[in-house]
Amino acid sequence: MTGVLDIEGNINLVGYGLSAIGGAIGVGLVFAAYINGVARQPEAQRVLQPIAFLGLALTEALAILGLVFAFVL
């Protein structure tokens, strides 16, 4: 034993974990803004709902892109 800790693996998965956390925070912020907007103006729900789902899709697309880069690099 040399006393040095041998660590094997790939650091890319740590990057994916960070991107997944960022995606989760982003989705939370998108839907918090949506709920806040609908609570203030209930009649605007039909306008705000597609925007919220678009924000959800874009945020999750970035998380999936992070997953792809974690395995490609």
CATH topology: F1FO ATP Synthase
| Overall helicity | over 70%
CATH architecture term: Up-down Bundle
Number of helical regions: 2
What is the rounded distance between the termini? 32 Å
Low-confidence stretches: none
Helix/strand order: HH
Question: CATH H level: which superfamily?
Answer: F1F0 ATP synthase subunit C
**C-alpha Rg, in Å?**
19 Å
Count of spatially separate domains: 1
Structural class: mainly alpha
Largest sheet: none
- Tally of extended strands? 0
| Portion in beta strands | under 5%
CATH class: Mainly Alpha
Main location: membrane
Protein name: ATP synthase subunit c
Keywords: ATP synthesis, Cell membrane, CF(0), Hydrogen ion transport, Ion transport, Lipid-binding, Membrane, Transmembrane, Transmembrane helix, Transport
Membrane topology: Multi-pass membrane protein
Give a quick summary of the entry.
The chain is mostly helical. Helix content is 78%, strand content 0%. Helix 1 packs antiparallel against helix 2 (45-72).
Molecular structure report:
The chain is mainly alpha-helical and 73 residues long. It has one domain: F1F0 ATP synthase subunit C (F1FO ATP Synthase), CATH 1.20.20.10. It contains two helices and no strands. Helix 1 (12-40) runs antiparallel to helix 2. The longest helix has 29 residues, at 12-40. The two termini are 32 Å apart. The mean pLDDT is 85.
